[in-house]
Amino acid sequence: MEETLRRLIGGPHPKGVAGILSSETAALMRDRLEEKRESDVEGKRELQRRFE
Fold first, then answer.
1. Cβ contact 33:27 at 8 Å
2. So what's the pLDDT on residue 34?
3. pLDDT of residue 4
4. Distance between CA atoms of residues 23 and 12, nearest Å
5. Is residue 50's pLDDT more than 90?
6. Cα separation values, 4 from 11, 12, 43, Å
7. What is the pTM assigned to this prediction?
8. pLDDT per residue over 22-34, tens digit each?
9. 41: number of CA atoms within 13 Å, CB side?
10. H-helix or E-strand spanning residue 6
């Protein structure tokens, strides 16, 4: 399954990128991704409200 997913997304092997980011950078990236996800969800809710 892992190989199939890697082929589909074109990414490197997880072992090849392990440890590249510091813990602080990884935490910051996770926080930013969560903020973006929340923003996307709110944007979709706003569109839904407009069409109701």
1. no
2. 92
3. 82
4. 20
5. yes
6. 11, 12, 32
7. 0.55
8. 999 999 999 999 9
9. 6
10. helix 2-9
